[in-house]
Design brief:
Chain lengths: 113, 356
């Protein structure tokens, strides 16, 4: 078998009636630039932490939109908040603030107003 | 439903397709992926059917791939398109026909934007004039090249040497048609049959003797999706789309697939190879894939053109089993000869799927 550097994703179905989107809505409220993310993956490609751990901001943003907090809770605190992703982001998303907000919510259980 | 009522509803899904005098623009990527398709389109219209088709080397990209990848801003893209229209205006044509579905979607989007926001149109006219000194008129009609072939499908059928019929069984070939998403999903009234009942490829297949398969994921995306494919980390999504379609069509045992988009035939063709080489699964029987064609290639086949002049040798999935079913002759010795007669070299053969 050939390794092409990617694998077929399993088919998944999202039920919008049961998706927990409140965290993503709160994230947009606190950091509106998150809405301009195009999931290009530049953040993940330039990430120093991602070179040594499975931290991947592109994937975290995707899971956050899907309301799947449990999947990224174990990896969110592996970010070093160095800000390289923010320098590289083509859309100017404040990625450091996104990580800080999500980290705070997942540890404190809420986002301060 | 009464036949009269059905016909009345069907009228809402029709579009005006001119019969002659086209300003034709090529696609950026089709010439690389399916090198003969556009040449065959011109040959059929000009030499077989005597139509007037104009094209100019001054035509450039429409900016579509950059636009859908969020690299080219909309204002830039609109000005690029305005320049294409200025080329049409200078050449004295009114019927714009494009080869690419991405371009067709973009032209539709831009014309609709200018219709609803005339001030944007005026700004684009001003920008183009200042940047290049050019002026332009809006096209009277906008057609995709598949619309044009659809319009002349019965004329092609009259001249056809072969039909899409299995010569061994005498039954029509079972054909999967796949419409490019940007053909009619964004602006349903711009495509024949709209988004729900796209008929542009079905009409061709029926006119040329084949039978269309209506399978559950018929309207699902091919998997191109720009960002899903352009970023390697996202390609698993692209592959998952194509896989979903093949799993859905497999029980119907299709003989071939016909498409009208630059990306769709590429992904439906090449992802079969990737699925075979990563998962060992093939969809056209043991170690066989389902051959994928552009509509121009199918038109060329029924008209009796040499399969290697149609560029069928650059397909990933072997076309020979389909040619044998229809009874189209081919010479295996000349498969990999270029137009100048020199040997192009044979590709490395895959392990799990037949490609020759």
């Amino acid at each position: 078998m050939i390794n092409f550097g990617y694998q077929r994703n399993e088919s998944a179905t999202l039920d919008l009636d049961t998706t927990h989107s409140e965290l993503y809505k709160k994230l947009l409220d606190k950091e509106p630039s998150a809405a301009t993310c195009i999931s290009c993956g530049t953040c993940a490609a330039t990430c120093s932490a991602g070179q040594f751990t499975d931290f991947n901001l592109r994937k975290i943003m995707l899971l956050c939109k899907r309301g799947d907090m449990q999947s990224f809770k174990p990896i969110i605190n592996r970010c070093m908040v160095c800000g390289k992703c923010q320098l590289a982001c083509p859309k100017g998303v404040n990625t450091r603030n996104i990580v800080l907000i999500l980290n705070k919510y997942l540890h404190a259980g809420k986002i301060s107003k | 439903m009464k036949k009269e009522g059905k016909e009345q509803i069907w009228k809402d899904y029709q579009k005006e397709i001119p019969d002659n005098d086209f300003f034709y623009v090529r696609s950026c990527i089709r010439q690389n992926l399916f090198p003969a398709s556009e040449v065959i389109f011109l040959k059929i219209l000009r030499e077989e059917l005597g139509r007037n088709v104009f094209e100019t080397p001054h035509h450039t990209t429409c900016g579509g791939i950059g636009y859908h990848s969020d690299i080219v801003p909309m204002e830039t893209m609109m000005t690029i398109i305005a320049r294409q229209f200025s080329l049409m205006t200078e050449a004295g044509f009114e019927n714009y026909a494009c080869s690419c579905i991405t371009s067709f979607g973009l032209y539709s989007e831009v014309l609709e934007t200018w219709h609803h926001f005339p001030k944007v149109l005026e700004k684009v006219r001003k920008d183009l004039k200042e940047a290049t000194g050019r002026e332009f008129k809006l096209p009277k009609t906008l057609s995709h090249a598949s619309d044009v072939i659809y319009k002349v499908r019965h004329e092609i059928a009259e001249k056809a040497k072969y039909k899409l019929i299995n010569k061994h069984t005498g039954k029509p070939l079972k054909v999967v048609e796949h419409i490019g998403c940007h053909y009619s999903k964004m602006f349903p009234n711009k495509g024949v049959g709209g988004a729900e009942y796209p008929y542009v490829l079905t009409g061709m297949v029926e006119a040329w003797g084949g039978e269309i398969i209506d399978y559950p994921e018929r309207r699902h995306c091919c998997g191109f999706g720009f960002r899903q494919y352009l970023v390697q980390a996202n390609r698993g999504y692209s592959l998952a789309n194509t896989h979903k379609k093949f799993e859905s069509m497999e029980p119907f045992e299709p003989d071939m697939i016909i498409t009208n988009c630059p990306g769709c035939p590429f992904f439906l063709d090449r992802w079969q190879y990737v699925i075979a080489e990563t998962e060992g699964k093939t969809y056209g029987g043991k170690n066989q894939g389902i051959p994928v064609f552009t509509y121009e290639e199918v038109a060329g086949m029924v008209l009796g053109y040499d399969p290697w002049d149609l560029g069928l040798q650059v397909h990933q999935i072997a076309v020979e089993p389909l040619l044998d079913k229809v009874g189209i002759p081919y010479n295996s010795e000349t498969k990999y000869l270029g137009l100048d007669g020199k040997n192009l070299g044979k590709p490395e053969l895959p392990k799990n799927i037949c490609s020759c």
